[in-house]
UniProtKB/TrEMBL annotation, chains A, B:
Any single biological process term in GO: iron-sulfur cluster assembly
Gene Ontology annotations for the cellular component aspect, listed alphabetically: iron-sulfur cluster assembly complex
Ranges of residues in domain SUF system FeS cluster assembly SufBD core: 132-360
Signal peptide: none
Classification via Pfam families: SUFBD_core (PF01458)
Protein name (Swiss-Prot/TrEMBL): Cysteine desulfurase activator SufB
Family as reported in the entry's similarity comment: Belongs to the iron-sulfur cluster assembly SufBD family.
Length: 387, 387
């Protein structure tokens, strides 16, 4: 069934983003050579990771955090732990990238399950490295936060500069009643990489999903639009993205939240910085059909070069009257007045710019446990340094 | 050339809105029977109109306003006055509706030309009535505001309830250096009408285009997205729409402004009220590629029924760094607190609702000469009464 659906979708392009030929990524050009120490460039110590995958092969699985099951996908499937979750929040025939993940991705990825009622303070780290030039990496990850549990996942994805390829990571997240999942993803690909993550999140009654997405580096093309379904009363979502797009980067990034139950709420915040000749499109959607639903979208774009471009496309969809949706956006360059003001206070132009850019990149990170907050701040700091 | 391009585009659907078969509107079902007195329902006195067209036939042409040439399109083409303007701001092969207008529309419509340097205070009224059931009405209108001139055009479009059909009005507006055109359009179609206006506006250096669009009545389907090109330094555009969508109305309404020259600026404001089972999509785009360009989009939606829907899709496209674009949107129902507050002040619930709805519908109408402002206020008042 899955295989047939995937085969039929293998030529189905994504509605957005540059279309790629899957065949081009099925003939890897050389064997892997990337060292795990590269992880430090995104602020991750490989020794502390619970899960490390290189290309399509898990190389470290450390189930050492109390309250969290850590497995590879193949183990979890074998043990019958994820049958109901496998291709349930993301459809296998969404497009050619989901199809390719199923057919050629190797059926690996991380599975994290937070035990019922457990508030796991320590973040679970996972690392995905694309190492073999010209290859397809398609981890299939599943995270389950059982009733009343709390989990923090930090994922770092990266490629060595010499190893362009296609990353099509499938992530399916399930937050049960009263649960809370915080997911922080830090991307650092090569300027020749193509990245097509496909993420689906289902949040039940009173549950909460918080996501922070950070992209720090130039990339050939990125297209992502995680979909969050709030299906239980009072469920909440907060999605923030900080995108730094230098060089020739082409990024089409989004986030959609579907408020399907009463008193659900969502906030989508994106900050985009472009440099050089980067071209970034940000899409966001809040669709509301639950009574008392509330949603807010905020998009801010900062162009640091004359030949870069930012197109921001937010959407508010009210399907019944008893909802409240709002949106704010601002796109432009650094404020001359603010720059001037800082310079009159004794800062150099360079310093003043840096202060304003860092201020621009600030996102709400309240409610995170200290180690996650520290990780996030470090990632933002590293991203700022690239400017 | 035009004919060939039109023939080739005759099956080209619009990217948005419900697709129609042109053939279905080429076999009118009976002869015209609509009286001009129907115009009073949209606040227009037919005696004061400079141009009245019923179906595809001009029935009144009164060139009595000093400083403005008033002609039919066929006259203007014959006199060689609009050769450079005909299908220049709107392309004949935009889609099947522009193609159908060229091939089957009868080559009629109004042509208004404001003489160089003339500030015409008195508004020029035009009326377009769709009278023959099941027919295609496709007026092709051209307005030229010569250098330094100022003109106000008010257009009322309506159909009798018994005469559904397809209206595909082509409007091409040219505002020359330092000129100013204010265009107020009031639509009142039948619940069975399909409406596909196609409008293009070219504004030169220091020129200004102000548009007010009001749709007051149920409609089978409406799809419109006027495109305004600011091609001269310092040109400005202000577009406001007030859409009241009752019953089964399906509307896909938009507005796009292209800031192509230095220090151009634009504001797009839309207010949408839905009732019953109406479904409204509002699109707006500000695309900026001129240094120092400034743009702002504001979309407000008010749902007065549980089973209606509003989808708002604004877009900001910054193509260079030295631009400043912003956007705000809010969609929801009437504020309970405000209603309650007014009721504590002695208003009935009905009155309180009416006050808040009228407040919601307010748009900036500054800078209009008194007769235009009065006309606009009357139209808004009539629209509010329908609620």
């Amino acid at each position: 069934m899955l295989k047939k659906a995937a085969e039929e979708a293998l030529n189905k392009p994504s509605p957005y983003g540059i279309d790629l030929r899957i065949e081009d990524f099925l003939k890897p050009r050389a064997s892997s050579s990337m060292g795990l120490e590269a992880l430090s460039s995104i602020g991750i110590d490989p020794e502390s990771a619970s899960y490390i995958q290189v290309d399509n092969r898990p190389v470290e699985v450390r189930p050492s955090i109390p309250g969290v099951k850590v497995l590879t996908l193949s183990q979890a499937l074998e043990e019958g732990l994820v049958q109901d979750y496998f291709w349930n929040a993301v459809k296998v025939d969404t497009d050619k990238y989901t199809a390719a993940a199923e057919l050629f991705g190797g059926h690996e990825g991380y599975v994290f399950i937070a035990e019922r009622g457990r508030k796991v303070e320590q973040p679970v780290l996972s690392c995905l490295l694309l190492s073999t030039p010209g290859s397809l990496q398609a981890p299939h990850n599943i995270v389950i936060v059982e009733e009343g549990a709390e989990l923090h996942v930090i994922t770092g994805c990266l490629t060595s500069a010499e190893a362009p390829g296609l990353h099509a990571g499938i992530s399916e997240f399930y937050v049960k009643e009263g649960g809370r999942l915080t997911f922080t993803m830090i991307h650092q690909w090569a300027p020749t990489s193509h990245v097509r993550p496909r993420t689906g999140v289902i949040v039940e009654r009173g549950g909460e999903y918080v996501s922070h997405y950070i992209n720090m580096s130039p990339i050939a093309s990125l297209q992502t639009d995680p979909k969050v379904y709030l299906v239980g009363e009072g469920a909440k979502a907060y999605l923030s993205s900080v995108i730094v797009a230098p060089r020739e980067s082409k990024m089409d990034v989004g986030g959609s939240v579907f408020l399907r139950a009463e008193n659900t709420s969502a906030e989508i915040v994106s900050k985009v910085i472009t440099k050089d000749r980067a071209d970034v499109i940000t899409r966001s959607l809040i669709s509301a059909e639950g009574r008392g639903a509330r949603g807010h979208i905020e998009c801010d774009g900062l162009l640091l070069s004359d030949s870069s471009r930012i197109l921001t496309l937010p959407a508010l969809d009210a399907k019944i009257d008893d909802v409240q949706l709002s949106h704010e956006a601002a796109v432009g360059r650094l404020s001359e007045e603010q720059l001037y003001y800082l310079m009159t206070k004794g800062f150099s132009e360079e310093e003043a710019k840096s202060i304003l850019v860092r201020g621009f990149m600030e996102v709400k990170i309240e409610g995170l446990p200290r180690p996650v907050e520290a990780q996030l701040k470090m990632a933002l700091e590293l991203a700022a340094r690239g400017l």
